[in-house]
């Protein structure tokens, strides 16, 4: 029997507001423990929550970018559970009335473009951070009350790859809209997956498990893959899948049981009586709409049609907002889109990858990259030299013109000077000259290489080719 | 609806409370007494009635996104039964 | 001195006949002398009070203008935070909790140069109608020490009645200001929901709680309300409405004012002697020119049921934060973190608190939410609508505050439902969120009887107007217990 998987994702994204959702404490990451706290976010007796307006704006922005409907009248709700990092022992969230519903994200699969539904987006507060040490658990409430949106997809994904693509697109959209910086390593983007399997062709859903603790998109993909396999094998063995929460163990590469349904929480949701109705009017929604930037899908299409970039390059360049901005800045500084794309897709991303850095960390300013391209195009330096200059720029952040000047890397285009080097090389390599004369054209490449080397890469390659051929003919 | 000792045990677990057998018995009786009284609400027709969150309708109590100074940590933690190195400490939690 | 009202004392201070320090020492002496018998105070801040009194005396000496309440000794229910003082909620759970911040009302009182004598006893976490549920000691009625002062703000009512403080603050979730005011023969006002900020009030039931004043008479009440009312950006449910000068409603006549008498509040369950006193009070108002109209509020009979579901459910969640981790009582021995929660909460909370947490948790738990909580929220809508409608025809509604006078200590403590029934006339007002005041209106067997005046939303002014008219015509607010 063939099986298919049903995958739904719940993503928590931290919003880029300056302050927490219900108090004026800063959301800045990395302060000393319990120094970004007050009676409200520490859950002191008598303290009360007041909703941060910007949280609503950001959540609506995400909703609109993800093609959702905005619910004009909503209210907050309490979700009751005891945990040491939850200072009030309830979380203020939304239950029956999420702010946004019924949206979608498009992904490109082998079968074409596929729509993954988004069931709801609601606003809520984050919990504190529990550090588990040998002698006990230490709690830091700096993160308590940091605003989150929870984005719940419909169970529309069928493969781990689709799940990964959904996440990548979602992340790009949240970054484009500046709703969230989506830094998984700082916990500002988190993902849980609901996975079930069923015989292919069946329309009923199987029993699902929830998987937690996946710390990267790669981990999400691997965990879902593992879980699908586990469930299929269990069914083949005649076992029943039980509804439970499982944890992804990265080291072991498997999912392990956290809690079963019997221990599942009874969250006792009810409308938050400390807060009031949240009503958004058309003007507010319109305002948010007007601040929406060009989203990745549109941008990609534009890069293809307007700049003539290949689809693959356009996809890569638009995969993160920072990268697209970088690319567009290089173009703005005068580079042709194709040159800019080639350089970014090539040298820039390769070097960043090697160093495990991201585009946000690069020292090379867009105007400098544009100038480097200009130096090649106007014949000041050769492509080979350009790569060397780029390496230098990457380390120092310096202007390429300055590097070229200081290091004497300007291209030699003086025919006589190059002809001298060519003749010197030919004199030193009689065997290669003989080989060439004997019809081994490969020898020519070797000679050109030697000339370039002798000129320290500065000789104009076209001239070198031409002069080597001329001089060989003479011999 | 009648509350049983098992219900009381379930609810106690949710509320993080524990009781002696005798207390459980007493709470079962008390809860049944109160819930019996509350049964009268069933006779009220609420078919097309909206819920009221609060005594009257208030909309949009919102705050601007402006950072306020946080609280002094000492002051926040001075009532904590076990605060160490600026953390609140609890017995080790195993997930 | 201790029998005087705030407005009488203000005059003495203004004339230079008494200093604030004298006044404060006097109040502290009174507390030291009689509070062993009354049990109103849980904490006395002698030093803070004297220092503040000195400061105010100094201001007066310099000729600075001071507030009406400046230098007048007062005290605060122990569920309202005063920075640096304990806020215990009369619970073992918070026995050692020192508030690190001021409640909004505390800030306002400090701005008014109030002399804060200390913190007042109450039913644990404001849950009760007799003040017998304090984890530390019972409060006794100054008119009869064998009887309860009412609750949950029993300490606040008794302290004013016994002359230990010139005014006090309490909180009212289902009658916790008005019922003890009635039983102790003082004036107690529950403002419109949202009129006074709840920031810094340890929440019992967020959608019902409201802070209000206890005073000896209506005139004082107007002054204190004016000081504590107002919008607070820290409380989402606080009203943005401007605060009126309530003193402008004093000394007004009430000719033609329409007073509604809801027949449901005079039915079975009301003590006959109490009824007679209230009927006499109605006659007084009629003679002053008010138009008395019988009205009907049939939904009122469901209010208590709605109240017990909403209040307990909200409480079960509000009190979850008391877990022995960030503050409060922590059990000495426990096995793990769950056991720490269970033991700390089971040892730290008293029986009545646990009973309400259990009821509320049950009402919210899976499968019961719609039948209980949601149903109660819908019936609440109907009760609100009924009050709104009633106020189309009348300006004020008059009822007894409590069906009986003060009962004996221990009389109802074994039957929760019977105890709950003593709030039957006050609870609907919290459900609707309208303001109401209890005013001394008679005596039965030497024990005070209170009359409740209920006003339209944010119409505390009319309550002051009617109450003050009644007060000028009668002597009940001038009676003091013999202690
Ligand atoms: Zn805070």
TrEMBL record, chain A:
EC top class named in words = ligase
Q: Which residues form the Asn/Gln amidotransferase domain?
A: 325-472
SUPFAM superfamilies per the UniProt record, alphabetical: GatB/YqeY motif (SSF89095), Glutamine synthetase/guanido kinase (SSF55931)
- The highest taxon in the source lineage is Bacteria
* EC number assigned by the record: 6.3.5.-
- Any one Pfam family here would be GatB_Yqey
Listed under GO biological process in this entry are:
glutaminyl-tRNAGln biosynthesis via transamidation; translation
The answer to whether keyword ATP-binding applies is yes
Known catalytic reactions? L-aspartyl-tRNA(Asn) + L-glutamine + ATP + H2O = L-asparaginyl-tRNA(Asn) + L-glutamate + ADP + phosphate + 2 H(+); L-glutamyl-tRNA(Gln) + L-glutamine + ATP + H2O = L-glutaminyl-tRNA(Gln) + L-glutamate + ADP + phosphate + H(+)
Q: Name one GO molecular function term.
A: transferase activity
| Family, as annotated | Belongs to the GatB/GatE family. GatB subfamily.
The family database entries (NCBIfam families) matched by this protein are listed as: gatB (TIGR00133), PRK05477.1-2 (NF004012), PRK05477.1-4 (NF004014), PRK05477.1-5 (NF004015)
Role = Allows the formation of correctly charged Asn-tRNA(Asn) or Gln-tRNA(Gln) through the transamidation of misacylated Asp-tRNA(Asn) or Glu-tRNA(Gln) in organisms which lack either or both of asparaginyl-tRNA or glutaminyl-tRNA synthetases. The reaction takes place in the presence of glutamine and ATP through an activated phospho-Asp-tRNA(Asn) or phospho-Glu-tRNA(Gln).
- Protein name as annotated: Aspartyl/glutamyl-tRNA(Asn/Gln) amidotransferase subunit B
The gene behind this protein is: gatB
UniProtKB/TrEMBL annotation, chain B:
Record's keyword terms, sorted: ATP-binding, Ligase, Nucleotide-binding, Protein biosynthesis, Transferase
Domain of life, source organism: Bacteria
Mention one GO molecular function.
transferase activity
Protein EC: 6.3.5.-
Its family? Belongs to the GatC family.
Which HAMAP family does its entry note? Answer: GatC
Q: Would you tell me the protein name for this molecule?
A: Aspartyl/glutamyl-tRNA(Asn/Gln) amidotransferase subunit C
TrEMBL record, chain C:
**Boundaries of every Amidase domain copy:** 22-463
Output the Gene Ontology cellular-component terms. Answer: glutamyl-tRNA(Gln) amidotransferase complex
**Keywords assigned by UniProt, alphabetized:** ATP-binding, Ligase, Nucleotide-binding, Protein biosynthesis, Transferase
> Is ATP-binding among the key words of this record?
yes
InterPro entries with a match to the protein in the record: Amidase, Amidase_CS, Amidase_dom, AS_sf, GatA
Give the matching Gene3D superfamilies: Amidase signature (AS) domain
* Active site as annotated: 77 (charge relay system), 152 (charge relay system), 176 (acyl-ester intermediate)
Molecular-function annotations in GO: ATP binding; glutaminyl-tRNA synthase (glutamine-hydrolyzing) activity; transferase activity
What EC designation does it have?
6.3.5.7
Q: Which residues form a coiled coil?
A: none
Q: Name one GO biological process term.
A: translation
Q: Which reaction does it catalyse?
A: L-glutamyl-tRNA(Gln) + L-glutamine + ATP + H2O = L-glutaminyl-tRNA(Gln) + L-glutamate + ADP + phosphate + H(+)
In the record, the note on similarity to other proteins reads: Belongs to the amidase family. GatA subfamily.
Q: Identify the NCBIfam families for this entry.
A: gatA
* Role summary: Allows the formation of correctly charged Gln-tRNA(Gln) through the transamidation of misacylated Glu-tRNA(Gln) in organisms which lack glutaminyl-tRNA synthetase. The reaction takes place in the presence of glutamine and ATP through an activated gamma-phospho-Glu-tRNA(Gln).
Q: How does it assemble?
A: Heterotrimer of A, B and C subunits.
Q: What is this protein called?
A: Glutamyl-tRNA(Gln) amidotransferase subunit A
Organism per entry:
Thermobrachium celere DSM 8682
Protein's gene: gatA
